[in-house]
């Protein structure tokens, strides 16, 4: 989330685009944080808000005494308002240069590995093209991610970004879980899942998605009542809370599923710990480290699965390649199987979002990968060590002449089989 000096509480009302937010520490502290993350093998991306600026206590706004009609002065005059504040004066070369340099400062002075651009649909398309061209020419190894509503692959193909922030994955997941707005129709449900696996028009890193929600869906600024319906919640709280077995197993299934999809999976802090309720910057709703420090057993099961799923994604190149083939669709039972592969290994991913259950190798999954192959289980979200049970899955299956394998399918599960 934004780190530039801002007004408000979440960082999305920028005041000084080249200054780090003072209450969080000094510029040296921020540099040290990035360096420490790098030493641990982690990349760091910063969120930049270039589409509007804060009118309150903003020296840019007050620079020349506003001008008439509260126009914001030389940095804002001539532009229209957005729901969050006035747009910058994009038509001015000086302001264009300011916005470009605001991007470069985070890369050059702090060493970040990429930038996420907030709400680029509130910026001129030609300016986005200029910015991405210049940034990519100076920093070819940095990733640039755009949030645009509605989601549009042209932000990659034409505006020059590497990836697009996808909200649809989360909202389609909610529809599937609630069985509403098409999510309860077998055909439409499978269609939604397929578009999560391979978002239309987006390449392998083209979509950044969070099936279980981001700050927009989990954060709440009104004591848990932001939208009047109490739906801004951590994923586990939407389905019954951490103490509910179904809610926990559904979280594991969705986490494993998004790790097998094309694109860059994202997890909002606390999700990996089965944190409940909503997120906010107040002291009661920040990251709850007590779940980990107290070795909460349900949290430890979820963390064990998150670790196993992440390790599989990192170690299995097939899960990060561009190729996807849908090999089995069962809309009635909410089961979808798809293949990801390299020249050396194939990954068969089977997701089941339903209450049905098949034991004693009682469910047939088509692989279309040729008969006689042996498929070995690499991940089962319903394994006992993750909160499931022994015997919930089939450790190894040999395909018949048609390429079909017979396996156990536990309720609410994500299974990954590998074959070389």
UniProtKB/TrEMBL annotation:
Entry annotated with the keyword Transferase: yes
Top EC class, one word: transferase
EC number: 2.4.1.18
Keywords: Transferase
Domain Glycosyl hydrolase family 13 catalytic: 10-313
Entries under InterPro entries matching the protein: A-amylase/branching_C (IPR006048), GH (IPR017853), GH13_cat_dom (IPR006047), Glyco_hydro_b (IPR013780)
Annotated catalysed reactions: Transfers a segment of a (1->4)-alpha-D-glucan chain to a primary hydroxy group in a similar glucan chain
GO molecular function, one term: cation binding
GO terms classed as biological process: carbohydrate metabolic process
Family: Belongs to the glycosyl hydrolase 13 family. GlgB subfamily.
Descriptive protein name: 1,4-alpha-glucan branching enzyme
Species annotation: Effrenium voratum
């Amino acid at each position: 989330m934004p780190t530039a000096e801002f007004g408000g509480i979440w960082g999305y009302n920028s005041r000084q685009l080249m200054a780090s937010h003072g209450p969080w520490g000094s510029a040296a502290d921020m540099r040290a944080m990035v360096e420490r993350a790098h030493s641990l093998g982690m990349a760091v991306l910063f969120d930049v808000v270039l589409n509007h600026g804060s009118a309150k206590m903003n020296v840019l706004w007050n620079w020349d005494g506003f001008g008439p009609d509260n126009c914001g002065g030389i940095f804002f005059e001539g532009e229209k308002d957005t729901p969050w504040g006035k747009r910058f004066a994009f038509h001015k070369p000086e302001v264009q240069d300011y916005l470009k340099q605001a991007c470069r400062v985070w890369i050059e002075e702090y060493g970040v590995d990429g930038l996420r651009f907030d709400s680029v649909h509130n910026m001129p398309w030609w300016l986005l093209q200029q910015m991405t061209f210049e940034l990519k020419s100076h920093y070819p190894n940095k990733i640039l991610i755009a949030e645009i509503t509605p989601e549009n692959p042209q932000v990659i193909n034409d505006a020059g970004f590497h990836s697009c922030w996808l909200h649809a994955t989360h909202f389609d997941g909610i529809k599937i879980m609630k069985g509403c707005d098409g999510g309860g129709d077998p055909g439409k449900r499978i269609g939604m899942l397929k578009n999560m696996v391979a978002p239309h028009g987006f390449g392998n890193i083209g979509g950044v998605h969070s099936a279980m929600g981001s700050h927009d869906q989990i954060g709440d600024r009104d004591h848990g009542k932001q939208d009047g319906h109490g739906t801004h919640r951590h994923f586990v709280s939407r389905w019954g809370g951490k103490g509910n077995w179904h809610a926990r197993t559904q979280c594991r299934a969705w986490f494993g599923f998004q790790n097998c999809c094309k694109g860059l999976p994202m997890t909002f802090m606390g999700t990996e710990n089965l944190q409940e309720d909503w997120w906010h910057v107040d002291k009661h709703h920040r990251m709850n480290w007590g779940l980990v420090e107290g070795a909460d057993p349900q949290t430890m099961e979820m963390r064990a699965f998150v670790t196993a799923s992440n390790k599989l994604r990192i170690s299995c190149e097939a899960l990060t390649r561009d190729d996807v083939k849908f090999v089995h669709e069962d809309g009635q039972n909410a089961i979808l199987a798809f293949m990801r592969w390299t020249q050396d290994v194939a990954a068969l991913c089977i997701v089941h979002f339903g209450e049905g259950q098949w034991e004693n190798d009682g469910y047939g999954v088509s692989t279309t990968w040729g008969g006689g192959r042996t498929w070995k289980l690499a991940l089962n979200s319903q394994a006992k060590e993750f909160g499931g049970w022994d015997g919930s899955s089939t450790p190894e299956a040999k395909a018949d002449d048609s390429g079909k394998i017979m396996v156990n399918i536990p309720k609410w599960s994500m299974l990954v089989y590998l074959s070389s």
